[in-house]
Amino acid sequence: SDISKCFENFVSQTLGVLTRIYAAELRETILIAWKLFIV
Questions:
Q1: What is the pLDDT of residue 2?
Q2: What's the confidence (pLDDT) of residue 18?
Q3: Domain containing 19: what range?
Q4: What is the C-alpha separation between 32 and 34, in angstroms, rounded?
Q5: pTM greater than 0.70 (yes/no)
Q6: So what's the pLDDT on residue 1?
Q7: b/e map 3-17, b = 16+ CB within 10 Å
């Protein structure tokens, strides 16, 4: 039970970090593409 609980916490934390990194990179990519399309 402790192992599964620990694993759940690890997975949720990892997903949170990956989501933040992915969102940041995606936002930069969208901004670059937006500038290219406008100009």
A1: 92
A2: 96
A3: 1-39
A4: 5
A5: no
A6: 82
A7: eeeeeeeeeeeeeee
Measured CA angle at 12 (ends 27, 8), to 5 deg: 165
Four-point Cα dihedral 3, 8, 13, 19, nearest 10: 150
How many residues are there in the chain?
A: 39
Q: How many domains does the chain have?
A: 1
pLDDT tens, residue by residue, 4-34: 999 999 999 999 999 999 999 999 999 999 9
Count the Cβ atoms, other than its own, within 10 Å of residue 26.
10
Please identify which residue in the block is written with the tokens 């901004």.
31
From residue 9, give the alpha-carbon distance in Å to each of 12, 13, 23.
Answer: 5, 6, 21
